[in-house]
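Lab notebook, page 48
Experiment: co-folding of the full assembly
Goal: obtain a model of how the components sit together before planning crosslinking
Operator: M.T.
Materials (sequences as entered):
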Amino acid sequence: MEVFKGESDRGDKLLSNGPIARLRGVQKVYRRGSEEIHALKDIDFELNEGDFVSVIGPSGSGKTTLLNMIGCLDKPSAGVVLIDGIEVNTMQENELARIRREKIGFVFQQFYLIPGLSVKENVSLPLLFSRKRADNQHLKSILEAVGLSNRSMHKPNQLSGGEMQRVAIARALVNNPRLILADEPTGNLDIKNQERIFNLLKALNRQGLTIILVTHDPKAAEESGTSFAMTDGVLTRIQSVADYFCGMRV
Amino acid sequence: MNLLKLTLVNVLRYKKRSFLSVLAIASSVAVFFSIISLSKGFDREIAGERERTGVDFVVAPSSCPHELASLLFYGAVPVSFLDESLAVEIRKTKGLAFAASMIVINVPSDKKEDKILIYGYQMPLLERLKPGWRIKGEIPVGYDAIAANNVLVGADFAEKYGYKIGDVIQLPKAEKSLPISGIVERTYTKDDAFIFAPLAVAQEIALRVSGKEVAGVEDITCSPRDKITPDPISAVAVKVDDPAMITEITSELGKKIPGIQIVTVSQATDSISHLVASVNALGLSVAIIAFVVAAAGVMNSILLTTFELTSELGMMRAVGASRPDIFSLVLLRALMLAGVGGVAGVVLALSGASAIEWIMRKIFTFMPGPHLIAFDPATALLCIAVSIALGACAGLFPAWMASRVNPIEAIRNE
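Observation: model returned without errors.
Model output:
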């Protein structure tokens, strides 16, 4: 089932010129009293159409900060962030919300489903903010893709953890984003569901969707196309995830 | 899926909290609606009462205006009497359609401790005095009817004691038996509870039950309170030919006859209206306080919910909700609670209208008409609009707070 249409609402074609996300010299500094915390240090990073990139690293190393930066939820202290060729670090809040609506889908460790809404309604939530009508055929194809077509009218409390995360992935897909940012999406799931969610992300990537996955799971990182390690705010591309984790154990 | 449904879902997620917020708003709206409706109903009914009262003014012994208003509309018994010869003096005034003597007396009945109120009227003038009355049976007019002591009774009085036309009311203290010749159909005023006797019959009863000394001829225009005039009357009800002449005629009467007080129907109704307006003002103050308390409750409830749903709000921001979207979502919740509370308040007030009216009629000696609190679309819309405006005020701060939620903080993994 083809879910990902690979076309944004504004008609931008997939595989447009240039990377989907580009960070140049990005720094993020937080202040805690007189102390300065460098969450990101001079990050240069490019993400091209169809990439499946994993970011690994210990807690507090800056992985989520990087994801927030690419996801237009945060602004850098220095450097430039370009999403689909557009510089976003100077944009106003409402423009950033529009970029998030049109180009980015988020998947979180917590599912953040709304209890009183059905699966279908939870999935169509982002459409509400894009002022778009839910197209039943589109919703059906997305739910089929995540294996929940028979659960569309169920409420979140009638679903398993794995199913809830699949609803969250469907919600991230509903606006036909160009990029999925998944922040430890399998962190709350059992092994079987971890595998299922990861396979789902891989399937979406095969259809052309660009994915950044923040994970602690070595297997998931290994199976993604490209892996980066984040250590104390420094992003490094790694050739072998196994070597990285071995190095950490040493 | 739309913003309304999403708001409804969030309202229903916290059923108890939402219910309490709605209840607080509904209570304040119910008070507000009742006060406004009572005020409107009172004005409407008092206007009708003016129409139904076939007189322009009443001449009575000097007393407080409210007592005279009560005499006119309710049936209070004045503390002192005039002599009927006063009515003769009044009738000499030019421009009068009629001047009808009347007496109001309170008499112990044969029904245990009950006291009954008897109005004595000049029965030939009854149809002009009470143009709205419909009577089953006969009006006791003429020598035979007076000699037989025939009377009319109000519908409530007849119902309370099970009297029918032809039954006889016994007044042991007055040593009188009063056959009922007619029953006044229900007027939804205090008249429904009275007996209406020919003036001469009522005067005789007054003399028998007063226990007071009969005044000398020199006292007749304004008798001392421990005396009763030979032909006692409580007041003279006057109708003028030309309503534009009322002021001139009352002024002339006031100069001509000392010791009397003249109250026009307008003054009487105004006197009662002022009293009710004071109570309404007090009620409105209570409603305003209730509104403030309800608004604080709604604000507190929505703030609490907003804090509890911070993560979800963060998620919404991440999936593309703008700050105005979040602001609208939270504000809509307050408006929904206030709107439902407003409608519930109107329904509550209408459901409890009978009880509220019953209380009001217990408090006030005179309350006109059968239904003071009636459904008035304009009043209902006003109350719901005030409620929604209140909800908007209560929701603004929580909505602003929610729109400032930092999505990064909100969705930070715990």
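Interpretation: Chain B has a mean pLDDT of 82.
Next step: discuss with group before ordering constructs.
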